[in-house]
Amino acid sequence: MKKTIIYLSIGLSSLLYSYEPSVYGAGDIDSVNPYGLTKTEKKVLDNTKRVQRLYNRVKEQQLKIEGLTTIIEGQNKEIVSLKEEMKILSNRVEPIKKDSNKTYSLLLKLGEMIDNINNSYISRDELQNILSGNGGQQNQNFNDSTNSSSQANSSDIYRDALAMFSNGNYSLAKKSFLEALADSYRPASANYYL
Fold first, then answer.
1. How many C-beta atoms lie closer than 10 Å to residue 157's C-beta?
2. CA 91 from centroid of its chain's CA atoms
3. At 187, is the secondary structure helix, strand, or coil?
4. Phi and psi dihedrals of 44, rounded to 5?
């Protein structure tokens, strides 16, 4: 009887553990290329793959977020340093702002001086005539004085034309620019405004 009980126990235990994996991997979900799966096993496999893909995407997004936060932190540091530099520069610029009206008036005077110099210069040909001593110096001086007065008049006309142009009086500005152009005063800029 003992023998039969032993045989029976061995037989039952072998039946309980009778699941024998296939030599070829059929039905094995964990294999690289599973085959011979039931519908439930196929769904489990699809869900496992889907979960793995989502997990990979989440990890990728986390890496991107970490990268962006480091970039943002770096940009914030740069902004703070630029704000500090702006404070330092604004302390230096305040005296310049107080003097801006004086500087502007000096620039206007300098511009008038440059216009006067441009109006009173003589051309190379006139200089060569004067230096060669061509006897017509009195006539030349007369031509220079009339030329400089017409140039001064042309500069006034040109300035008025610019003022009219900036105020939107284009028809009046056109007439003035044409007059300045007729006197050959700043032909390039006059043509530009025309």
1. 21
2. 28
3. helix
4. -60, -45
Contact 26, 36 (CB under 8 A): yes
Q: List, in sequence order, every residue forming a beta bridge with 35; answer none if it has no partner.
A: 26
pLDDT of residue 58: 96
Q: What residues pair up with 26 in beta bridges, in sequence order?
A: 35
Q: What is the dihedral of CA 105, 107, 108, 114, to 10 degrees?
A: 150
- In angstroms, rounded to a whole number, what is the distance separating the alpha carbons of residues 157 and 32? 92
Cα atoms in the 13 Å half-sphere on the side-chain side of 79: 6
> Reduced to 3 states, what is the DSSP secondary structure of residue 28?
coil
Using DSSP, state whether 121 is helix, strand or coil. Answer: coil
- State the pLDDT at residue 42: 86
DSSP string, 139-191: HHHHHHHHHHHHHHHHHHHHHHHHHHHHHT-HHHHHHHHHHHHHTTSSHHHHH
Amino acid at 15: L
> First CA to last CA across the chain, in angstroms?
127
Read off the pLDDT of residues 141-158 as tens digits, 9 standing for 90 and up. Answer: 444 444 545 555 778 888
Rounded Cα gap, residues 99 and 44, in angstroms: 80
Q: 68-79 burial string, b = 16+ CB within 10 Å, else e?
A: eeeeeeeeeeee
